[in-house]
């Protein structure tokens, strides 16, 4: 991509790029020229030079972005300081243009008198606060994620590094896709037409590349949530341009395995022999406990309680944020899960805080060995199967909710089902374990 900025200059491949308008205010160069130090005669096709140009382009964009973020931070700090000073004087912060155009002359005089009465006419921040002299910082799409993360700081507390990566990446992709379609516009200038154009772009892309509608819906959903949050918290007045634009989507459903299929195929002797031992043992625990993949991969020596009266695993945050409050639970170990946990009493360090890696390895293996009955089945389907098995033996709804980590529909009284009670129900649905775990 950066190869388009290459040109021949004095027999040398040279990177030449015009400074984008968004950065022109603080990078006064019209053109940026950087030699690749590769002679055209040594690289006629420009392939080597293109690789160098890619590095130059990446460094340059990082530099530009840093300058832009610095200016944004400074502008936001000035704006917030002016608003706070305005409130301290008992005044509503009003932009200077709106103050002159929409407010009365008496209101303007009242604000000037407030400054004079407090001896603040020489205080730049106070004057900016009273008279609306601090401009609202321009927030462009390229800065949307950073601002959203700042606003959601409390909600993100407790997330692990991997959880933060998974939280950021889809939002980052959605923003990059939108910028590619409508340019890096100020957030306040995004319109419903922009959102509709983006939806049309996704519709064509899904149909052309045979993608799933859920992929498009994720982009639209992330953009909608971010912009709605900013609109509410920063009073931007942009509404919800991406509201109610999701495509009809039925491709996110995961089917449960037939119980006999799990016993006769997945738990067949040697069926999982090709999986690495940690992945195999972790999968066996999922089969018998219904744990989420992110929960089984984060079991540790402290949360695998083999020496307890009722051997069990404890699902705890342990440096991560739980999916729900009810996810914090204890699950007895029976059958193949007990054997697997006994073989790995310290958990699965290879996959700790890496549930995506575990999922990819297991699903690839299951697919290659004909252990997925359809495209709607995956390792996660074993969790649905676990719930179906409990329902089949008519386990009480409160027991099912306690084991699944679901919210109980009725008010909570008492400590809930005991480990022994839960073990009794799990023994009723336990599979026959293969001889070798």
UniProtKB/TrEMBL annotation:
Domain of life of the organism encoding this protein: Bacteria
Residue ranges of every copy of the Tyr recombinase domain listed in the record: 252-427
Annotated keywords: DNA recombination
PROSITE patterns per the UniProt record, alphabetical: TYR_RECOMBINASE
Classification via Pfam families: Phage_integrase
Transmembrane segments: none
GO MF annotation terms: DNA binding
Keyword GTP-binding: no
The keyword Protein transport is annotated on this UniProt entry: no
Gene Ontology biological process terms in this record: DNA integration; DNA recombination
InterPro entries in UniProt: DNA_brk_join_enz, Integrase-like_cat_sf, Integrase_catalytic
Gene3D superfamilies hit by this protein: Intergrase catalytic core
Protein name: Integrase
């Amino acid at each position: 991509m950066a190869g388009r900025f290459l040109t021949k200059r004095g027999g040398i491949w040279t990177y030449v790029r015009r400074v984008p308008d968004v950065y022109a205010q603080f990078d006064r160069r019209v053109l940026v020229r950087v030699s690749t130090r590769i002679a055209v005669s040594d690289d006629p096709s420009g392939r080597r030079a293109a690789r160098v140009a890619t590095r130059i382009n990446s460094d340059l964009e990082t530099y530009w972005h840093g300058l832009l973020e610095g200016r944004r931070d400074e502008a936001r700090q000035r704006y917030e300081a002016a608003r706070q000073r305005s409130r301290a004087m008992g005044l509503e912060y009003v932009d200077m243009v709106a103050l002159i155009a929409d407010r009365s002359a008496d209101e303007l005089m009242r604000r000037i008198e407030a400054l004079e009465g407090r001896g603040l006419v020489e205080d730049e921040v106070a004057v900016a606060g009273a008279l609306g002299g601090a401009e609202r910082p321009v927030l462009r799409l390229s800065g949307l994620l950073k601002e959203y993360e700042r606003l959601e700081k409390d909600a993100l507390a407790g997330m692990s590094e991997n959880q933060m990566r998974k939280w950021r990446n889809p939002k980052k992709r959605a923003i990059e896709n939108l910028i590619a379609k409508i340019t890096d516009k100020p957030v306040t200038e995004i319109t419903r037409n922009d959102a509709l154009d983006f939806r049309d772009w996704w519709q064509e892309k899904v149909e052309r590349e045979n993608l799933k509608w859920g992929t498009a819906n994720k982009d639209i959903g992330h953009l909608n949530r971010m912009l709605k949050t900013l609109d509410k918290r920063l009073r931007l007045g942009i509404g919800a341009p991406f509201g109610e634009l999701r495509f009809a989507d039925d491709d996110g459903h995961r089917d449960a395995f037939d119980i006999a299929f799990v016993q006769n195929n997945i738990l067949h002797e040697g069926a999982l022999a090709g999986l690495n031992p940690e992945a195999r043992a972790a999968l066996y625990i999922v089969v018998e406990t219904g744990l989420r993949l992110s929960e089984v991969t984060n079991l540790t020596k402290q949360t695998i309680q083999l020496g307890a009266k009722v051997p069990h695993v404890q699902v705890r945050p342990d440096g991560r944020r739980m999916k729900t409050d009810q996810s914090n639970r204890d699950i007895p170990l029976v059958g193949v899960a007990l054997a697997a946990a006994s073989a790995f009493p310290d958990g699965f360090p290879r996959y700790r805080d890496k549930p995506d890696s575990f999922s990819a390895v297991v699903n690839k293996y299951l697919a290659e060995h004909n252990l997925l009955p359809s495209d709607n089945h995956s390792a996660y389907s074993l969790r649905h199967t676990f719930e179906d098995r409990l329902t089949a033996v008519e386990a009480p709804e409160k027991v099912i909710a306690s084991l699944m980590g679901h919210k109980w529909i009725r008010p909570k009284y008492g400590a809930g089902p005991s480990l022994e009670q839960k073990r009794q129900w799990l023994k009723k649905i336990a599979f026959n374990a293969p001889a070798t775990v």
